[in-house]
Amino acid sequence: MGKYIVHSTLRPAGDQVMNQTGGHTYLADEPLVAKGTDAAPNPVQYLLGAVGSCMSVTAREIENSRENLTVKKFKVDVSGETTSLDDGSSKVTHIDIKVTAETNLTPADHQAFLNEVVKKCTVHESLVGAIPMAISFE
């Protein structure tokens, strides 16, 4: 489908990292308690945001491909838990995803649409099996 390249450069301030991809630049950092400068989201927050963003973009792409579908509202709340390991590293151990959506579809078709969003979301599908995830729909 595509190849993506992100260049990440550690800056001299705290844990700040400048990321560049295409014509976009964005900062990542760590909170003050982790000796960062809290100038931007941390990498885990970007990961969680990637899940929510990907699901939202996927919903729009599905809507654009169907004449009979109108997405009136689509919101994704994502939370994650991390744990520290014995060797001093850490990892994301669980992700909770809550999707709130309103469409013009019947309840059965609405649920099928939500299931399709999850299945077609590149980021979610990339994390399946690597991180336990729970998804709820409202």
UniProtKB/TrEMBL annotation:
Q: Which residues form the signal peptide?
A: none
State the InterPro entries in the record: KH_dom-like_a/b, OsmC/Ohr_fam, OsmC/Ohrsf
| One Pfam family it belongs to | OsmC
Q: PANTHER family this protein is in? A: OSMC-LIKE PROTEIN (PTHR39624:SF2), PROTEIN INVOLVED IN RIMO-MEDIATED BETA-METHYLTHIOLATION OF RIBOSOMAL PROTEIN S12 YCAO (PTHR39624)
Kindly provide the name given to this protein in its UniProt entry.
OsmC family protein
Native organism: Secundilactobacillus pentosiphilus
